[in-house]
Amino acid sequence: MTMVQMQPRSTSATPVHRTVVDAMEAAGPQLCDDMTVEVALSVMASARTGHLLVCDHDGVCTGLLTQAQLTAVRDSSAYTDRVQLRDILGDRGPFAPLVTTMAEAEHAMRYRRLDAPPVVDEHGSALGVLALAR
User: Fold this and answer.
1) InterPro entries of this UniProt entry (predicted)?
2) For the whole model, what pTM was predicted?
3) What pLDDT, on a 0 to 100 scale, did the predictor assign at position 9?
4) 37 domain residue, yes or no
5) Given CA atoms 21, 27, 31, 37 in this order, what sign does their dihedral have?
């Protein structure tokens, strides 16, 4: 039989629960949902980023779009230069509220195959983007 020696745990020690705030990246470019696909692609190229956050006129985050998504829309046969970001966002979300733990976020991202959900405050404003290392 192997003996295991236990170290007494300090009563003042509290477990550390990292939240998404600890691991999020800066929000990067944000565009209003009435902007066109061409404007969004131009902003992404200028910012040298692969995604951008989309917000409504009240500053509430309505989604995240990637360069691949925007390019696919632009290259489709139904595309016109009047297509706005709100037209291609689909359903709202998913988002990671500030109080989400990293364990919860990692599970949701892997389960739903998400690359980078927006991190939002209690009012829905985007504060950053959570990206898992692959």
Assistant:
1) CBS_dom, CBS_dom_sf
2) 0.71
3) 46
4) yes
5) negative
